[in-house]
Amino acid sequence: MSMGVIIGYIFEILNGLTYKKMKKVLVVEDHPIVSAATCQVITQYVPDVECTEVSTFWRALELVGLEEYDLVVMDLGVPGGNTIEMITRLRSIRPGIRILIFTGLDESLFALPFVKAGANGFVSKKVPESELRRAIDTVLFRNKIYVSDEVHDLTLSSYFKPHRKEGSGLETLSEREMEILRLFYARKGVSEIASILNLSTSTINTHRIRIFRKMDVENMIDLVLKYELLTGQRKE
Fold first, then answer.
1. Where in this chain does the record put each Response regulatory domain (predicted)?
2. Cα first-last separation, the chain
């Protein structure tokens, strides 16, 4: 075999290695400054990366269907999104795609439901840049699930709670509790719900406390937001 042929094989191998190292990341974020900053962090941290920015979930679905991305870094509040179904829709197109949620929502409330739905990680926009890099490294290069230390500790503590129930919260609600939750979501007050269901206000308040506990929230705003994300419903 001539030296020229050997050198040719070496170049082919090196080109193949370079191609394998190239990463493609899709950033789904509707705030241009945040989107650009996220891509900047990624391009500075990940060698040989192509970072694409889109501002809607619909466009993200189109691109994921056309190209193979190694990682999707996604905000939840983009147009067309704001629901846990974002994960299943992406996975229906690319089952093996890695998804990192990067959002301003409270991670103590929403990280576990989205990870259970199939996200590879959940990181808050409130964290320093070093934590975002850590999340990217965990999901993209180590192929592991990323949650913050705080969420990890919450997971362990909830696991060892007595009478622990599996699920996002909705699965643990009784039919009556689901009925009351839907009425709360429809902007009905305690007295109005009591009248509709022919129950006392104290009974409705007791159910409200149980719903808060099972949904792992502390106020009505978080309850409504979590209900929307888990069911895909949006109030106008």
1. 24-140
2. 72
* Average pLDDT over every residue of 65-88: 90
Q: What is the Cα–Cα distance from 97 to 188, expressed in whole angstroms?
A: 41
Which residues are CB-contacts of 84 (< 8 A; sequence separation ≥ 6)? 113, 114, 117, 168, 229, 230, 232
Q: Which residues lie below 8 Å from residue 170, measured CB to CB, with a gap of 6+?
A: 178, 215, 227, 230, 231
Judgement on whether residues 100 and 139 belong to the same structural domain of the protein: yes
- Please give the Cα distance from 147 to 134 (Å, whole number): 10
Residue among 223, 210, 175 nearest 233 (CA): 223
Helical axes 220-231 vs 107-117, angle rounded to 10°: 10
Rounded Cα distance between 200 and 211, Å, is 17
Residues 108 and 201 reside in one and the same domain? no
Q: Which amino acid is at 184?
A: F
92 or 8, higher pLDDT: 92
Asked if residue 161 belongs to a domain, the reply is: no
Q: Which domain holds residue 216?
A: 166-231
The total of structural domains in the chain comes to: 2
**pLDDT attached to residue 146:** 93
When mean pLDDT is compared over 69-73, 79-83, 185-189, the highest value belongs to 69-73
Q: pLDDT by residue (tens digit) across 122-164?
A: 999 988 999 999 999 999 999 999 988 887 776 555 544 444 4
